[in-house]
From TrEMBL:
Recorded catalytic activity of this chain's protein: S-methyl-5'-thioadenosine + phosphate = 5-(methylsulfanyl)-alpha-D-ribose 1-phosphate + adenine; adenosine + H2O + H(+) = inosine + NH4(+); inosine + phosphate = alpha-D-ribose 1-phosphate + hypoxanthine; adenosine + phosphate = alpha-D-ribose 1-phosphate + adenine
Similarity-based family: Belongs to the purine nucleoside phosphorylase YfiH/LACC1 family.
Keywords: Hydrolase, Metal-binding, Transferase, Zinc
Organism: Anaeroselena agilis
Entry-linked InterPro entries: Cu_polyphenol_OxRdtase (IPR003730), Cu_polyphenol_OxRdtase_sf (IPR038371), Cytotoxic_necrot_fac-like_cat (IPR011324)
Extent of the signal sequence: none
Function (record text): Purine nucleoside enzyme that catalyzes the phosphorolysis of adenosine and inosine nucleosides, yielding D-ribose 1-phosphate and the respective free bases, adenine and hypoxanthine. Also catalyzes the phosphorolysis of S-methyl-5'-thioadenosine into adenine and S-methyl-5-thio-alpha-D-ribose 1-phosphate. Also has adenosine deaminase activity.
Short name of one Pfam family: Cu-oxidase_4
Protein name listed in UniProt: Purine nucleoside phosphorylase
NCBIfam families on file: peptidoglycan editing factor PgeF
Length: 271
C-alpha cells in the first residue's frame, strides 16, 4: 500500500510526502501544480526555470514550495539535468546553486547526494521519475531524476551506491520514495527504448513492459524499484506513490500529456 499522501501547507501549496520518510523526521516533498502564481499553460506552481514561464514567478513558486516543506530556498541546490547518470556530491559550498539561476546550477548531473544538514536537494520533473533516498543510520540523503534514459542507466541504484561510497550507506538501511511520474498505464515507448531496457535489465526486462500494437507500455516505477532492490534495498523500504502524472494533469504537470508546453514539479529532500 502506498504511503504517499497529499497535504495542503499553511501557505496554500499542495504537495505530496511519503509517510515512511516523514515519520523519520526527514524534510521532503513532491510538489503539485496547486498553490502557485503562474498562469496557463504553467498554472500555477511551476518550478521549472527552463519551461518558458516568467522566471520571477518560478522563483516565487520555488520559495513557496520550500516554505511549505520547511526548508530554506536560499540554500537549495540543483543541477542542470541532462537525462544521464552523473551524480553530484553536494557540500556546503554548493548551497543555493541553481536555486534562482539555471546557469549557476551544477552542470550535467541528474542526481544529488549529501550528508550535510540544512542543504536541501531539489530536482525538477514533468513525467520523469523522482527517487528520494534517506539513510537514517549514516544520516545521508540522495535524490535522482530518471526518465527512460536514466532508468536504463540505473541512476537510482548508482545514487544509493554513491551514498555507500561517500557516506558508508548500506542499501539495507535506506528508505526510498518513488514519486508521481508517468505510469505504466500511459508511457508508450518504441523499439529502441525496449532494446536499451533489455540490454540493461537482462531477462527481467519482460516484466517491465506490456506490448501495445507495435509499441510497448513501459513501467518506469518498477524498473526503478527493481534496480535498487537488486543492490540490497528491501522491498518493504521502497514506496511507489502509484500516481500517474499523465492521467492527472489537474494536479501534476505532464510533458507527454500536455505535448511539451507545461511546467515542472519539484522533488526536494533535506536533512
Ligand atoms: Zn497513466
Amino acid at each position: 500500500m502506498s504511503k504517499f499522501v497529499l497535504k495542503r501547507a499553511a501557505n496554500g501549496v499542495w504537495y505530496g510526502l511519503f509517510t515512511h520518510l516523514a515519520h523519520r523526521g526527514v524534510k521532503h516533498g513532491v510538489s503539485t501544480r496547486l498553490g502557485g502564481l503562474s498562469t496557463p499553460p504553467y498554472a500555477t506552481l511551476n518550478l521549472g526555470l527552463k519551461s518558458g514561464d516568467d522566471p520571477d514567478k518560478v522563483c516565487l513558486n520555488r520559495d513557496l514550495f520550500c516554505q511549505a516543506v520547511g526548508v530554506d530556498y536560499a540554500r537549495a541546490v540543483t543541477c542542470q539535468q541532462v537525462h544521464a547518470d552523473r551524480i553530484h556530491l553536494a557540500g556546503a559550498e554548493d548551497a543555493g546553486r541553481g536555486a534562482r539561476d539555471h546557469a549557476a546550477a551544477v552542470p550535467a548531473s541528474d542526481a544529488l547526494i549529501t550528508d550535510q544538514g540544512g542543504l536541501p536537494l531539489i530536482l525538477f520533473y514533468a513525467d520523469c521519475v523522482p527517487v528520494l533516498i534517506f539513510d537514517p543510520v549514516r544520516r545521508a540523503i540522495g535524490l535522482s531524476h530518471a526518465g527512460w534514459k536514466g532508468t536504463v542507466a540505473k541512476i537510482a541504484a548508482k545514487t544509493v551506491l554513491a551514498m555507500g561510497e561517500h557516506y558508508g550507506t548500506r542499501p539495507a538501511d535506506c528508505l526510498v520514495g518513488i514519486g508521481p511520474s508517468i505510469g505504466p498505464c500511459c508511457y508508450e515507448v518504441d523499439a529502441p527504448v525496449v532494446e536499451a531496457l533489455r540490454a540493461s535489465f537482462g531477462p527481467a526486462w519482460r516484466h517491465l513492459v506490456v506490448p501495445r500494437g507495435d509499441r510497448w507500455l513501459l513501467d518506469l516505477w518498477h524498473a526503478n524499484r527493481d534496480q535498487i532492490e537488486e543492490i540490497g534495498v528491501p522491498r518493504a523500504h521502497i514506496d511507489i506513490s502509484g500516481v500517474c502524472t499523465a492521467e492527472n494533469t489537474e494536479l501534476f504537470y505532464s510533458h507527454r500529456a500536455e505535448r511539451g508546453t507545461t511546467g515542472r514539479m519539484g522533488a526536494i529532500i533535506s536533512l
